[in-house]
């Protein structure tokens, strides 16, 4: 007769003993990062910011002033577009309410909705251009070398600048001047007062294009940023 008690798990029917895993080392503390790593992280977290170059550093001097003012313009345009959109929704809602409920459509709502949409479209076009959210076909330029992409980006901006200057600024100024005295039947404005927004939007887009040329030439911005970097602007 065996006087030694059998150990748990030694018999064929006993469950295997619990295996204790050795305690691992304590989690190391977060290592300190260098200023270069912090700047690179800032560039990753906010890739669209014109104040962060691809290398992670913020531009200074004249280029930094241009980029900071461009960012301010983008924020102002975003606020204007938001206000105009809310105003458009209110005008159209009141038009539907007066027509369907009161059976007497407010006559001023038609022109107010039409020209509010025109102004919203012009300012929204300038905002989207500043955010680089406009449609762009880059399947060919992506095959170029970095130097070729930079040349192509500058050439594209020059073509855009010529179009904006000739159509939006010059053409828009002529349209606003020709319609300056044409009054609206239900609003205390003239058609020229409204279309003066067209050259204003043209000047803003021209400034965006100019700053983009400077940014590309100085290496502050990539010639053609990745699509995911522009996704929030669309």
Structural category: mainly alpha
Order of helices and strands: HHHHHH
Report the total helices: 6
Mean pLDDT: 78
Low-confidence stretches: 47-56, 229-234
Compute the number of strand runs.
Answer: 0
Helix content: 55-70%
Give a quick account of the main beta sheet: strands, pairing sense, barrel closure.
none
| Beta-strand proportion | under 5%
Radius of gyration: 31 Å
Overall spatial form: elongated
Distance between the termini: 85 Å
How would you sum up this structure, described in words?
The chain has 234 residues and is mainly alpha-helical. 57% of the residues lie in helices and 0% in strands. The protein has helices spanning 35-45, 61-100, 108-130, 146-178, 191-195, 197-218. Helix 2 (61-100) packs antiparallel against helix 3, helix 2 runs antiparallel to helix 6 (197-218) and helix 4 (146-178) packs antiparallel against helix 6. The longest helix has 40 residues, at 61-100. Mean pLDDT is 78; it is low at 47-56 and 229-234.
List the helices and strands and how they pair.
Blueprint: H1 35-45, H2 61-100, H3 108-130, H4 146-178, H5 191-195, H6 197-218
Helix pairs in contact: 2-3, 2-6, 3-6, 4-6
List keywords for this structure.
234 residues; disordered C terminus; mainly alpha; 0% strand; 57% helix
């Amino acid at each position: 007769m065996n006087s030694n008690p059998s150990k748990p798990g030694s018999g064929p029917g006993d469950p295997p003993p619990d295996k204790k895993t050795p305690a691992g080392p304590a989690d190391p503390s977060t290592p300190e990062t260098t200023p270069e790593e912090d700047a690179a992280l800032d560039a990753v977290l906010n890739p669209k910011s014109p104040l962060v170059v691809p290398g992670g550093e913020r531009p200074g001097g004249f280029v930094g002033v241009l980029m900071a003012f461009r960012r301010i313009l983008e924020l102002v345009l975003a606020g204007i577009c938001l206000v105009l959109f809310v105003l458009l929704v209110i005008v159209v809602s009141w038009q539907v309410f007066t027509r369907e409920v009161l059976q007497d459509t407010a006559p001023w709502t038609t022109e107010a909705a039409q020209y509010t949409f025109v102004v919203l479209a012009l300012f929204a076009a300038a905002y989207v251009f500043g955010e680089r959210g406009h449609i762009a076909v880059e399947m060919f330029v992506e095959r170029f070398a970095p130097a070729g992409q930079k040349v192509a980006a500058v050439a594209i901006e020059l073509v855009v600048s010529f179009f904006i200057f000739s159509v939006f600024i010059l053409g828009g100024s002529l349209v606003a001047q020709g319609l300056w005295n044409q009054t609206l039947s239900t609003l205390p404005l003239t058609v020229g007062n409204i279309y003066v927004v067209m050259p204003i939007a043209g000047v803003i887009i021209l400034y965006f294009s100019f700053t983009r040329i400077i940014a590309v030439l100085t290496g502050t911005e990539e010639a053609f940023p990745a699509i995911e970097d522009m996704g929030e602007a669309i």
